[in-house]
Amino acid sequence: MMYILCCIGYSAIYSQNTLKGKITDTDNNPLLGVEIYAPYIHKGGTTDEKGGYELKNIPNGQVTINVTYLGFKTITKKLNFNNKDIVLDFKLEESVFTMDEVIVSTPFNKLQSQNVVKVIRLSARSLQKMGVPTLAEGLTNIPGVSQVTTGQGIGKPVIRGLSGNRVVVYAQGVRLENQQFGSEHGLGVSDTGIESVEVIKGPASLLYGSDALGGVLYINPEKFASENEQKILVNQRFFSNTIGSNSSVGIKASGDVWKFLARATYAFHSDYKIPTQQRVTNTRFKEKDIKFGVGFNKTNFASEFRYNFNNSKIGLTDGIGEQTITTNIELPYQDIDNQIFSLHNHLFFENSKLDFDFGYTLNNRKEFEEPDNIQQENNEVNTASLSMKLATFSYDAKYHFPKFNKIETILGVQGMHQTNTNFGEEILIPNAKINDFGLFTTADYNWQNKTIQAGVRFDNRSINTEYHEVISDNNDKRIFNKIDKSFKSITASVGLKATLFKKIQTRLNLASGFRAPNLAELTSNGIHEGTNRFEIGNANLKTEKSTQADVSFEYEVEHFEVFANGFYNRLNDYIYISPTQTYIEGKPAYQYQQNDAKLYGGEFGFHLHPHPLDWLHLESTFEMVVGKQDNGNYLPLIPANTWKNTLRTEFDFNHWLQQGYASISLHSTFAQNKISEFETKTAGYNLVNVGVGGDLILGKIKLNTTISVDNLFDKKYINHLSRLKQDGILNAGRNLVVGVRFLL
Q1: Would you say 270 and 326 are in contact if contact means Cβ atoms under 8 Å apart?
Q2: CATH number of 505's domain
């Protein structure tokens, strides 16, 4: 397929447009190292000592160019190329706040400040500074985002109280399908080899279809090298709490037409230590990750192929037992393979563009319980207690119409074909086929510093399962009845962005979303070892539907910014699992049910950069969410209110330390007393975290270093969303993380 697409590119009109110019500050001083990047054609470069830049082989048609430099305002510009070179100079204005970056997860790829929907973007560099062991934990630093955890190695993102299938994850630009209904395994994506993570909070079904009820995590892979550049990048991190390590090596090389990158990562962690100096037995985990990418662009066509293989071996703890620092996984444990193939193509016309993308993901999930199951290595798949393969083919095509009277319009079609197949001795959900089809259109209109964006979408999901009979250990027969169901939905959204009183950026959004019941909710009939319970599905479940109103205000002057976000989310036929007060096969039985519910809350904060103390930053955020059913009961797994305060300094020391920083933060989590009928209350706590780092210059070598300490005072606490809470097991104690990154 890649060969065919490349041939299409070569057969197009054979022009070679060039963009070049000079980039300076407002005083006409040339800027060295400014990044110029065209995201759709994956082509970029940096300025030289004189501020000069040049990008070659740019296709005909409209191409978006982003100009970014730390400490300066980002510029994004759409240029029309037509067999003619363009010379364009830029003047960058200084900015003391976070760099305004281009958002990929929204349809028109605007800057953060220009989007109708507020999207939070967390860069890979920010994740590295946090020193977190998993990507899911790093995301909890975004207001409104938390995680359901099982020890250190397993984390599932929670956005404004919604998690699991209600949060859609995109990796490499394709939908990640990996049995995400289960809270007892992690994201399946390494935090290395990524450029950034974008978070859409609230219903995003218009763009992403079923399941994007609570929000979207859009994980952007790392960029290719700049034109005619080669790099070898090495990353190493050490974790004191788990005596863990994360090692990663990447290679990049780019020419005028072809681009290549590859990265390999290996991580291991022993059991995590709690503040009593005990270790929680069999919370150890290992991860192997391989990423590969090839890019091509010529004339009117650009294409990018990427592949990611991720293997995670994760222990499933029974509590505090044998004390050891080994990383050898004990029974019971999970062995999970994720493979992602993605192919993104862009065909440029004179004033319009066609994007067509294909993805294939293969998730192989195995759970081992008995010692005999790991003896026959050559037949491991067949001897696993639980073994499921989930294969998903997805497609996505969007046509960007020519701009008409300040109106930009997109027409898109999306879909997937998915199969779930069982190979293990046990069956939790049956063999099944799922087909999705969605058709949508959205438009964006700008006038007088105002933007309105609206769209509508139709979706259909069909689910067909096989009939199964399973004989349990005590000779009881469990039956999985055949299901043939279809779920249809129409969703819409409308949003307005305007500036009030010339300073207050205001966003008003109203969006509907939906989520078809997943296989586990419809068909479960067995012991889910990861959750230690017997789960019973409900074939009569209806589609969840959501209507959310969201409002946000941002006020920014030169040395101060403040924001306030509020939301109200009405959920009809909310699906949840509840205990039946009975036991089946020695395990407590839980069954899926439905009830109408609502979620409401918000995030508030400020960022102070006092003048003339240009090296000082004070940031503070408060976030809250309340979830209730219409019968008066609270929803399960709702995060407690939190208040996070960070004091950060920035500095340079002559020529041996650049972009240095030091920070201290206080994270205050309040008591969670608004709990569901089968949860327990959680006490509040305060955690202090510190960090320091920067670029060390040793001759011609630049070492990007980070040192961080989480839970500095070894505080005893239990997070409300910890799945080990029911056994009274504490969260992790003090953790010193040392990281270094450098070029060879």
Answers
A1: yes
A2: 2.40.170.20
Give the separation between CA 462 and CA 446, rounded to whole angstroms.
38
Query: How far apart are alpha carbons 119 and 695 in whole angstroms?
Result: 29
Contact by Cβ (8 Å): 312, 365: no
Does 44 share its domain with 146? no
Q: 587 near 577, Cβ under 8 Å?
A: no
pLDDT at 68: 85
Total count of residues recorded for the chain: 744
Contact predicate 617/608, CB 8 Å: yes
Where do we find the tokens 């940096």? 46
| Interatomic CA distance for residues 156 and 163, integer angstroms | 7
DSSP-based three-state secondary structure for 379: helix
pTM of the full structure: 0.88
* Nearest alpha carbon to residue 154 among 275, 14, 334: 334
Tell me the pLDDT band of 744, cut-offs 50, 70 and 90.
Answer: confident
Residue 101 lies in a domain: no
pLDDT tens digits, 624-667: 999 999 999 999 889 999 999 999 998 888 778 888 899 999 99
pLDDT at 8 over 80: no
For position 253, what pLDDT does the model report? Answer: 94
Bridge partner residues of 530 (DSSP) = none
Max mean pLDDT range (22-26, 370-374, 456-460, 473-477): 456-460
Q: Which amino acid is at 29?
A: N
Does 506 share its domain with 544? yes
Q: Residue 37's pLDDT band (boundaries 50, 70, 90)?
A: confident
DSSP 677: T
CA separation (Å) from 100 to 240, 350, 560, 608, 648? 35, 29, 16, 17, 19
Q: What is the dihedral of CA 267, 314, 144, 499, to 10 degrees?
A: 50
In the three-class reduction of DSSP (H, G, I as helix; E, B as strand; rest coil), residue 124 is classed as helix
Backbone phi and psi for residue 582, each to the nearest 5 degrees, phi listed first: -125, 170
State how far the Cα of 169 lies from the Cα of 153, in Å rounded to an integer.
Answer: 18
Residue 739 has φ and ψ, to the nearest 5°, of -130, 150
Last residue of a domain, one of 95, 110, 139: 95
Q: Is residue 13 predicted with pLDDT exceeding 70?
A: no
pLDDT category of residue 184 using cuts at 50, 70 and 90: low
123 and 52 share one domain:
no
Say what the pLDDT of residue 444 is: 93
Q: Which two structure tokens, joined as six digits, stand for 377?
A: 């290595």
Given a contact cutoff of 8 angstroms between Cβ atoms, the answer to whether 199 and 331 are in contact is no
Tell me whether residue 170 is exposed, middle or buried, using C-beta atoms within 10 angstroms of its C-beta: 0 to 12, 13 to 18, 19 or more: buried
Q: How many CA atoms lie within 13 A of 423 on its CB side?
A: 15
Whether residue 202 contacts residue 550, with contact meaning beta carbons closer than 8 Å, is answered with yes
Q: How far apart are CA 236 and CA 240, in angstroms?
A: 14
d(CA 519, CA 464): 10
Q: Is residue 337 part of a domain?
A: yes
User: How many angstroms separate the Cα of 705 from the Cα of each of 147, 288, 291?
Assistant: 27, 23, 24
Task: Tell me the two tokens of residue 365.
Answer: 């999930």
455 and 310 within one domain = yes
Same domain? For 545 and 681 the reply is yes
Residue 214 has pLDDT above 50, yes or no: yes
The whole domain housing 76 covers: 2-95
Q: Which amino acid is at 439?
A: L
What mean pLDDT do residues 153-167 have? 88
Task: Inform me whether the pLDDT recorded for 717 exceeds 50.
Answer: yes
Asked whether residue 123 falls in the same domain as residue 91, the answer is no
- Calculate the dihedral angle through the C-alpha atoms of 339, 171, 423, 543, rounding to the nearest 10 degrees: -160
Give me 567's structure tokens: 């939301």
Strands (E), 501-559: 504-515, 525-528, 533-536, 544-557
> Of 62, 95, 128, which marks where a domain is finished?
95
Number of domains in the chain: 2
Query: Tokens standing for 303?
Result: 């294409």
Structure token digits, residue 405: 């009277």
Query: Does residue 113 lie within any of the structural domains?
Result: no
pLDDT at 603: 95
